[in-house]
Amino acid sequence: KHTLTEKQAEFIKEADSGGIPDASTLIDKIADLIASSLDDEMGADVTDQQIFRAHAAYYEKEYIEDMNALGVRPPDVLTRVTEFMPEIIAYIQKIMDNGCAYEAQGSVYFDIR
Question: The whole model's pTM is what?
Fold first, then answer.
């Protein structure tokens, strides 16, 4: 179902030949493929919210480190979309009620006509 990128296939071959020092390094190199596969297999069955928070925290940390390396000042306030879901849902509903968006196949789209 998933296709390995050339780079991911190279990393797996490198691991098979003993060229990658540990499993953690290999996992870091092919994490996107693993995440996608796990999501396909177990996505709807995962109910432990900490898994999602830990996943997001990893990329949040990477982003903050990258911005720091570029000399970008850290934000005064850091918000996460998951902390505002009720407000977001209410806002989207208001947009739909005003006729500016519509639902189709489980998604909401802006009506730009």
Answer: 0.46
